[in-house]
C-alpha cells in the first residue's frame, strides 16, 4: 500500500507499507522520505547483512504480563502493521528468533509500568522486532529504554485491543556512538487509546518513524516527543497518522532543542484523513528552540483531507531562539543569564515530561535535560541510564 500527499509541485509519495524487502530499494538520498538523512552514517543497516548479535535485555514485568518469543513463520508476524522503510523491513527479515512478544491480558490493570531495557555493548549491527500485544479493555503503561552503543534497526509493533488504554514511553539514551533506526507501528482498536512519548537525547544518529492506524471508531492517539541534539548529532522523527475510521482523534506535540556545531533535527508530521473518516479531530505541532549558532532544524507538517465532514484539523510549526522578554524578566529579578536560559528551556519541556505520569522516569529525564543544558552530555546519558 502506498500513500501520497499533494504538496507544492504536485503529488509526492511519502508512505509505502509492505513486508517485502523488494518494495524498498536501496535509497540514494533524493527520495522524499530519505532526503534529510545522512545515509553514510547508516552503513550496514541499509544493506541488510545478517548477524547473530543481539541487545542485552532486562525487564520488570508486573504480575500477569507475559514475555514470550515467536519464531519465523508465526502468523502473528504478518498480523502487525507493515514496515514503512528499508531499515524496518530488514529488521523483520533478519531479527533473530522472529520477535519478542510482551502480552498484557484483556481487562488487566497492572499496578506498575512494564519496563523493557535494551542495552548495546559495541559497534555491531543488531536487528530486532518487539511486539506489544495489549488485550481488550486493559490499562497499562509501558517503558522501553535504549542504552549503551550498537548499530540497531528495530521494528516495534503495538497492538491495542478494543477499549484498551496504553501509555507508552520510548527513551533513546544511547551513548554518543550509537546508530538507531526504528519503526513504531501502532494499531488502535475500537474506542482504544494510546499516549505515546518519544524521548531522544543520545546517539550519533537516531531515526524514528511512528505510524498510527485505526481499525474502528473512537480511537484516540496522543503523540508527543522531546529531543535535544548536541554538536554533530542527527535526530529525525517522522510520523504518519492514517485516519481511515470515523470519529477518531489524534493530537501530536513534538518539542526539540539544538545546541552545538552541526546539531541537526528533523521532524516530519503527516496526517491523512480519508474519505470514510468522518468526524475526525486532529492537530499536530512541532516547536524547535535554537540555543546556539551552527545548528539546523527541519520541520515539515503535512495534512491531506479527503472529506469535509470533520470536527477539526490543523498544524503548526515554529523554530526560533530564546524569547528575549522571558530572559529579561528573569534577569531583572537577579537571575544570571545562564540560569535564566536553563529555566526557559526546562519550562519548554516540562509540560511534556509531566504528562508521562511515571514519577521516577520524569525525575531522571529532568536531570538529564539539566545536564544537557549544562554542557555535560555524558552526565545526561548517565542520568537516563540510572
Automatic annotation (TrEMBL):
Tell me which species this is from: Kineosporia corallincola
Question: What InterPro entries does the record point to?
Answer: Fe-S_cluster_assembly_SufBD (IPR055346), SUF_FeS_clus_asmbl_SufBD_core (IPR000825), SUF_FeS_clus_asmbl_SufBD_sf (IPR037284), SUF_FeS_clus_asmbl_SufD (IPR011542)
Recorded superkingdom? Bacteria
Q: What is this protein called?
A: Fe-S cluster assembly protein SufD
Question: Pfam families in the record, alphabetically?
Answer: SUFBD_core
> What family does this chain come from, according to its entry?
Belongs to the iron-sulfur cluster assembly SufBD family.
Top-down, what is the taxonomic lineage of the species of origin?
A: Bacteria, Bacillati, Actinomycetota, Actinomycetes, Kineosporiales
The SUF system FeS cluster assembly SufBD core domain sits at: 122-348
Instruction: List the transmembrane segments.
Output: none
Amino acid at each position: 500500500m502506498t500513500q501520497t500527499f499533494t504538496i507544492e509541485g504536485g503529488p509526492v509519495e511519502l508512505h509505502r507499507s509492505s513486508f517485502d524487502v523488494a518494495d524498498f530499494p536501496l535509497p540514494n538520498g533524493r527520495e522524499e522520505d530519505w532526503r534529510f538523512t545522512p545515509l553514510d552514517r547508516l552503513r550496514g543497516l541499509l544493506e541488510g547483512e545478517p548477524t547473530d548479535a543481539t541487545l542485552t535485555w532486562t525487564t520488570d514485568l508486573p504480575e500477569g504480563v507475559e514475555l514470550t518469543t515467536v519464531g519465523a513463520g508465526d502468523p502473528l508476524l504478518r498480523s502487525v502493521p507493515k514496515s514503512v522503510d528499508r531499515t524496518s523491513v530488514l529488521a523483520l527479515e533478519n531479527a533473530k528468533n522472529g520477535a519478542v512478544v510482551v502480552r498484557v491480558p484483556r481487562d488487566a490493570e497492572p499496578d506498575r509500568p512494564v519496563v523493557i531495557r535494551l542495552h548495546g555493548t559495541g559497534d555491531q549491527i543488531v536487528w530486532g522486532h518487539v511486539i506489544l500485544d495489549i488485550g481488550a479493555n486493559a490499562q497499562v503503561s509501558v517503558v522501553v529504554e535504549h542504552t549503551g552503543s550498537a548499530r540497531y534497526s528495530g521494528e516495534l509493533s503495538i497492538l491495542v485491543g478494543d477499549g484498551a488504554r496504553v501509555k507508552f514511553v520510548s527513551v533513546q539514551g544511547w551513548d554518543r556512538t550509537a546508530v538507531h533506526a526504528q519503526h513504531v507501528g501502532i494499531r488502535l482498536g475500537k474506542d482504544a487509546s494510546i499516549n505515546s512519548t518519544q524521548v531522544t537525547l543520545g546517539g550519533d544518529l537516531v531515526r524514528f518513524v511512528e505510524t498510527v492506524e485505526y481499525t474502528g471508531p473512537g480511537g484516540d492517539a496522543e503523540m508527543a516527543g522531546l529531543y535535544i541534539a548536541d554538536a554533530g548529532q542527527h535526530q529525525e522523527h517522522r510520523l504518519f497518522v492514517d485516519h481511515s475510521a470515523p470519529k477518531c482523534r489524534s493530537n501530536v506535540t513534538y518539542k526539540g532543542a539544538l545546541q552545538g556545531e552541526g546539531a541537526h533535527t528533523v521532524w516530519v508530521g503527516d496526517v491523512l484523513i480519508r474519505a470514510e473518516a468522518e468526524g475526525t479531530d486532529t492537530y499536530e505541532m512541532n516547536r524547535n528552540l535554537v540555543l546556539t549558532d551552527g545548528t539546523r532544524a527541519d520541520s515539515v507538517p503535512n495534512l491531506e483531507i479527503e472529506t469535509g465532514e470533520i470536527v477539526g484539523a490543523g498544524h503548526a510549526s515554529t523554530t526560533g531562539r530564546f524569547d528575549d522578554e522571558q530572559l529579561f524578566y528573569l534577569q531583572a529579578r537577579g537571575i544570571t543569564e545562564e540560569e535564566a536560559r536553563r529555566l526557559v528551556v526546562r519550562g519548554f519541556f516540562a509540560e511534556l515530561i509531566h504528562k508521562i505520569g511515571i514519577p521516577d522516569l520524569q525525575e531522571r529525564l529532568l536531570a538529564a535535560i539539566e545536564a544537557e543544558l549544562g554542557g555535560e552530555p555524558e552526565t545526561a546519558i548517565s542520568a537516563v541510564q540510572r
